[in-house]
Amino acid sequence: MALERYVGQMNEKYALDKKFYDEINSNKINHKLIEKYEVPRNRGKGFIVRKGQVIKIIEAGGPQISDVTFWNADNPKELFDAERTIQLEGWFITKYSRIWSRHPWFRPMATCLEDTVVTSEPEKGYHHHWVGSHCAPEIYELRAGKAGLNACHLMFLEAIEPFGLKEEDILHNVNIHQKGRIDPFTGRIFCPASDAKKGDHIDFYAEIDLLVAVTVCPNGDGLKDGTDPEDVDIWPIGVEIYDTGTVPKEFYGWTNWRTNWKGRWTPEGKKVKKI
Ligand SMILES: [Zn+2]
């Protein structure tokens, strides 16, 4: 008998169709560039990425962490759920990883099409993970006793404000280009320097219309942190958005558990007595 089980097991009707994404990726030459932007040091920026488009997050100068997160462009209550995503995809992003939204929507928001970062010394961790959230002024104050430092939390606010979102709309994020390791004995999170190089990029294919917020993290390549900003090398983050000309496949819908779930609690707080 097996002594453990894999928690990301997926029935084949919900499994990723790799061929579909391989075809999109191999047709890059025909993708049409529709937006190109460089997010500068200390800033955050929001981008609308329509379904079927690709957002490419690029190391514009050198190894640089970018905190990135996702909302449904038409309904910000539907946002990226890191915990569900870890359950299904594992704790870091590789090609074919999917970004899942929270309940009750709970569906793929985006799919990773390509990741060019080569991880050296994998025993020291992997890149692009969803563990440990993003930096915030309060975290820096806890760490160093210094108030008023800039952090990705404030850059997210700058990114989402033009779209009418507020601080309470910020929850989970992906730590793009960041290398991380969870110590198996203590459970603590460690951050070695990123292996990403100038020109490295990670690409996401939008499954629904998205608002994507992108920051330039004061932690630079991750080895130092933003509590001493003058001591950290910071590079801008390039963003490119492409039209692929390929419409996303419809996600295989859930069964209507609200009516099938007889006699149990519904989201409305009522028991379903009879169908
Ligand atoms: Zn940060």
Largest sheet: 7 strands, antiparallel
**Which oligomeric state applies?**
single chain
Question: What is the helix tally?
Answer: 5
Strand content: 25-35%
Terminal residue distance: 40 Å
How many domains is the backbone divided into? 1
Query: Which class best fits the helix and strand makeup?
Result: alpha+beta
How does the overall form come out from the CA principal axes? globular
- In total, the number of strands is 13
**Helix-residue proportion:** 10-25%
Mean of pLDDT: 93
Radius of gyration: 19 Å
Give start-end ranges of low-pLDDT stretches. Answer: none
| Hetero groups | zinc ion
> What is the N-to-C succession of helices and strands?
HEEEEEHEEEHHEEEEEH
Layout: helices, strands, pairs:
Layout (H helix, E strand, L loop, with lengths): L17 H9 L5 E8 L4 E6 L3 E7 L6 E7 L2 E5 L2 H8 L8 E3 L7 E8 L10 E4 L7 H8 L7 H9 L13 E9 L6 E2 L10 E6 L3 E6 L21 E7 L13 H4 L15
Antiparallel strand pairs: 1-13, 2-12, 3-11, 3-13, 4-5, 4-9, 4-12, 6-7, 7-11, 8-9, 9-10
